[in-house]
C-alpha cells in the first residue's frame, strides 16, 4: 500500500485532501501516520498490504474484535502477529433498544479505547457500547452533503458516530441519545474533537427531545421508520431526512409521508451488507 508519512497532528485536516484514499485505514505509529495515497498521487512510503487469512476483523484503537463465527485458534494467532493488540474479543450480536454488544473476551484486556477514523477521535468502552464497523463510507457521504451553518438533528447519536463528522463539516448538531453510557462518551468525544460549540447533546428519548425545525434529520437506527411520524413534525420545505433501515421500507415511508400530508423525493442508498441477503440501507427523503 502506497502511503505518505504525516505528523499525527495533521490528521484531522488531511483526511479531506483529494490524494487520501478514504477506503483504506491510516497506519498509526509513534513516528506519525502512514496515510493511504490514491492511485496516481505521489507517496513517500510503501507499506506491506495487510495479509488476511480470509477472515475479517475490526480494529478499535488497540483492540481487535471478531464478528460472526467464533474465531479459530489460527485466526486469533494470525491477528496477534499482525496487529499486536492489547485485547482480542468476539461480538456475537447487539441487543435491545440501546444495541448493547454481546461481547466475549478471548484474551488480553478491553474496556476504554481511543479509536481514530477519518481524522475524528472516538473514545468508547468496547464492552459497553457498539461501534458499527461498516458505516465509514456513509459517514463520509453525509459529511460531504453538509452546508456550513445548517441545523441537524441526530436522533440516535450514540457516541457521536455521525454527529462528530457532521459538526466538523460545519453543521450545528442537536445530538440525542437515550443510553447514559453512550451519552457520556458523546459528551467526551464532542470535547475531545473541539466541537463543543457545534454539538448540543441531550440524554433521553429523541421523541421527547426533538424541538423546532431542522434542515437535516439523521435517523441512524434500523427501526427509524417507526420514529418518522415524530420527525416529520420538525421539518420545513427541503429538509432532508436520512432514514436508516434493514431492507427497503420505502413504501412504509411513503405511507407515513402521506398520513402527514407531505410530499418528498426519496432515493435509497446501500450502506453495508447486514447479513445473508440483507442490506443496511438509508433512504434520503427530501421534503418538497
Ligand atoms: C444502532 S445505534 C446507531 C448509532 C449511530 N447512529 C450509527 O448509525 O452508528 C442506535 C443508537 O440509538 C440509541 N437509541 C435507541 N432508541 C433511542 C431513542 N428513542 N432516543 C434516543 N436514542 C435512542 C441507542 O442507545 C443507540 O446508541
UniProtKB/TrEMBL annotation:
GO terms for molecular function: tRNA methyltransferase activity. Residues 57-288 form the SAM-dependent methyltransferase TRM5/TYW2-type domain. Keywords: Methyltransferase, S-adenosyl-L-methionine, Transferase, tRNA processing. InterPro entries: MeTrfase_TRM5/TYW2, SAM-dependent_MTases_sf, TRM5-TYW2-like_MTfase. Gene3D superfamilies: Vaccinia Virus protein VP39 (3.40.50.150). GO terms for cellular component: cytoplasm. One of its GO terms (biological process) is tRNA methylation. Pfam families: TRM5-TYW2_MTfase. Coiled coil: none annotated. PANTHER family: TRNA METHYLTRANSFERASE (PTHR23245), TRNA WYBUTOSINE-SYNTHESIZING PROTEIN 3 HOMOLOG (PTHR23245:SF31). This is SAM-dependent methyltransferase.
